[in-house]
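Internal ticket - ligand job 319, NAP:
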Amino acid sequence: MRPTPQSCYISSQMPQILDGNRVRDDIKTELKPRVEAVTAAGAPPGLAVVLVGNNPASEIYVRNKIKACRDLGIYSESITPPGTISTEELLSLVKNLNARPEIDGILVQLPLPPHVDTKRILLAVAPAKDVDGFHPCNVGNLVAALPGPRACTPAGILELLKRYRIPVAGKRAVVVGRSDIVGKPVAMLLLHEHATVTICHSKTADLPAVCREADILVAAMGRPAMITGDYMKQGVTVIDVGTNRLDSREEVARIFRNSPEKLAVYDKKGSVLVGDVHPLDVVEKSSAYTPVPGGVGPLTIAMLMVNTVASAERRAGIC
Ligand code: NAP
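stdout (structure tokens):
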């Protein structure tokens, strides 16, 4: 990762808002010369995104990924087989992408239709092109602290902590959620940065008490505003990975305590986004936090771009 003018992220205001849009923009600015260098070396980075069927949310994610590629001058290709595609057909499509030298990264947008064997598909992606960092080889690389693509959302969280100079070594980190794409990899990355890490899940006893031990609290459960002030010690750094859409006016009024601003957003759009952390309590209790939207979300695509460019650099023999 290129050096950054990190001091510009430091603010005297409390709590500090950890601005994912700003970090994303800086990451993209730093990536541009790297894209130019590999392109000049005759190996322009290329990303293939496979989007199966018609899932509106996935379509938006994929559109944003393709747009990020375009902004950076990365070649991108979106492949959109119908939702009826079989596991075997999808495997052959992935194998075909594995064999194409101009494709540095392959991303299979999840979720796949229920009749498709997701594990077999993810296993079929060549580890060197696995820009999502989901292949067991790359999970092994992560655990062993060996080089390799890291899962994008967890890598973005670590990038955010570094750039805001949030101390991690020696701190107590509590991660709520143990998914393969967020909870487990972010816990491992925090461990590699010498935090003392606790991973929690739906069976954790007395979750609020465990969370109150955290200097760094990562919430990744998909439960709207569940982490209230009772889960936070004063001064904690809170990373809210959750992205939940509230589509009931009553729920918006309850969670945002009748905020006229949020109710106006709901009345205009018919929904309001909220994280897994209570958006008002976090302002009272934390010393720094990621807002939703605009915190962790923007970093996921930025780190996908980083992984794609790093893969192209390896192919070009630049790093
Ligand atoms: P997931 O696969 O559904 O995993 C959820 C985890 O939370 C599970 O480990 C589950 O425990 C735990 N959990 C659920 N309810 C809980 C409770 N009441 N108390 C304690 N733990 C509980 O979710 P995910 O894919 O990791 O995503 C989590 C959230 O992050 C979602 O809102 C998702 O939309 C968001 N997300 C955002 C980004 C981004 O770019 N911003 C990227 C990925 C995900 P068990 O294992 O015991 O079931």
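Auto-summary: The CA atoms of residues 21 and 118 lie 31 Å apart. The pocket of NAP is lined by residues 153, 176-179, 181-183, 200-204, 207, 220-223, 241-244, 296-297, 300 (CB under 6 Å).
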